[in-house]
Amino acid sequence: MKKILITGAFGQIGSELVPALQKRFGEDNVVALAHRTRHDAFDGIIETGDVTDADAIEAIIKKHNIDTVYHLASLLSATGEKDPQLAWDVNMNGLKLILDLAVKHELRVFWPSSIAVFGPTTPRQNTPQHTVLEPTTMYGVTKLAGELLCQYYTLKYGLDIRSLRYPGLISHQAEPGGGTTDYAVAIFYEAIKTGAYECFVSKDTMLPMMYMDDAIEGTIQLMDADWDKLTVHTSYNMAAISFTAEELAAEIHKRIPVTVTYKPDSRQKIADSWPQSIDDSVARTDWGWKHSFDLSRMCDVMLENLTVKLAK
Ligand code: AKB
Asked: The NAD-dependent epimerase/dehydratase domain covers which part of the protein (predicted)?
């Protein structure tokens, strides 16, 4: 039976990946690593620790006999620009530490990359799997270096490491923290709470996005895939839907009235450096990736669930 450790367990992805893995492998086989804060309402095994503390992480791996790590702990793009040093420490040193422990304890590893590995010199439409990678954010730099590190450890030490370049993720459970794509979640909250939203990117900003259920499904699917079929050991392009901020606002407005104003801030420059749409045909061919949620279905589910959540 797999014994899984998830770092960043209470972040945007972890909050939904932990229950999905608990359901699949049983609560006793999933250890959620929280950073400092206690999460008392949590059902399952919880440990508290810092992903840059090798001894603490190794002790947890030994204590629970861990064989697979989903290393999700990371600073996102906007937060990374506020504190590039911290972004480097958490994103790079944290990953290196996990990979070194993976060599020592023969662990399988999942690590999330991002569309942030691309930059202004990358083709912006249908961005290919293999293309120019010149990111201009510290977050993107750490994701690109991290991808190369994952590939290096696979080639050098024969580790089983798998990774996805997530687009902006949209969910009604945990809110994202410090990302450039956060507007695509915040707009739903404000539409329900106040009927108005001031968007921090321009109305014609188009970015690749994905509903969280697809992201979780794809992550589990990649981890289940036959290793011999995987041809990418940096990180797989993974896509679902692309839309402009204005198209998202219009789709929400079809369901509930919302007035959106556009006031681009420093995050606009980051958004402008990223692709508008992604070619994920390699993932589709290698391990059968397929998304389920289009823009309309995602808006239905988001509004339905958030209306209930915000009424509490
Ligand atoms: C961010 O906006 O920083 C993230 C990402 C695209 O990786 N959501």
From this structure: 4-225
